[in-house]
């Protein structure tokens, strides 16, 4: 089991049970680093993420955390947490958004970190890779079935972002597609500004943090200078008032 609590499995198929229950999946352990999802009782190996895949995920986590913090919304953004999508199925989205109280419950629960069926997240995000068909077809159906209100598919190969909403529709999600030169439009967070260009080719998060720190230091400097100017003006006014009083003039009557 990884440090995040997601089950891992040996590549020796002789050791693999034919099917697992959800509870068996949550507590399955071995000594490899391979991560698996669960689909109808069968373990599905997850491909090793590319560098670009990881960079996109880091960027999305950073941007969403900043957005929810600055807009004072009680939501957290996590990756490597599972979402149960059926009796014997569970997925591991690249990014997931849900209320902090569910995170506290999850952290106190033994076994793998997986949100159960009644713990529906607000948003899941998948960045496509070799198993892109799963993101567009299988996971779309599973996420709609458990009424996840919003599902983003980030596709670096096709240079597009799809936002899927309204899972209650007869055929599942309604989708809206965004391409290079556009900014996404979230149904839940209408003032969230994320350009497709940056989502598909994101800056390094550490550079963004450095830029924010520099901006904060500049703002602090401006505030300090404003306070200094205000203090200088106050002292000047006091000296002038003292001079007028020495001349027999009440400065308050001027």
TrEMBL record:
Domain Putative restriction endonuclease, first and last residues per copy: 22-186
Alphabetically ordered keywords of this record: Coiled coil
InterPro entries linked: Nuclease_put_TT1808 (IPR012296), Restrct_endonuc-II-like (IPR011335), Uma2 (IPR008538)
Coiled coil regions, renumbered to chain: 209-247
Top-rank taxon: Bacteria
The protein's name in its UniProt record: Putative restriction endonuclease domain-containing protein
Organism ancestry: Bacteria, Bacillati, Cyanobacteriota, Cyanophyceae, Oscillatoriophycideae
């Amino acid at each position: 089991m990884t440090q995040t609590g997601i089950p891992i499995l040996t590549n020796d198929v002789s050791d693999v049970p034919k099917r697992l229950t959800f509870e068996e999946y949550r507590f399955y352990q071995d000594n490899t680093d391979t991560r698996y999802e669960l689909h109808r009782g069968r373990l599905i190996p997850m491909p090793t993420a590319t560098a670009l895949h990881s960079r996109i995920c880091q960027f999305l986590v950073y941007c969403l955390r900043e957005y929810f913090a600055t807009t004072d919304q009680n939501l957290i953004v996590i990756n490597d947490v599972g979402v149960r999508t059926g009796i014997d199925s569970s997925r591991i989205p690249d990014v997931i958004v849900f209320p902090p109280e569910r995170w506290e419950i999850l952290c106190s629960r033994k076994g793998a970190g997986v949100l159960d069926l009644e713990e529906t997240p607000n948003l899941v995000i998948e960045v496509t890779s070799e198993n892109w068909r799963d993101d567009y077809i299988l996971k779309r159906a599973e996420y709609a079935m458990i009424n996840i209100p919003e599902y983003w598919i980030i596709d670096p190969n096709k240079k597009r972002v799809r936002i899927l909403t309204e899972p209650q529709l007869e055929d599942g999600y309604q989708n809206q597609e965004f391409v290079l030169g556009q900014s996404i439009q979230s149904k839940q967070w209408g003032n969230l500004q994320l350009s497709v260009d940056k989502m598909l080719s994101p800056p390094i998060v550490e550079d963004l943090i450095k830029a924010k720190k520099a901006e904060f230091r500049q703002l602090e400097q401006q505030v300090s200078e404003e306070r200094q100017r205000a203090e200088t003006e106050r002292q000047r006014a006091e000296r002038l008032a003292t001079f007028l009083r020495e001349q027999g003039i009440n400065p308050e009557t001027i």
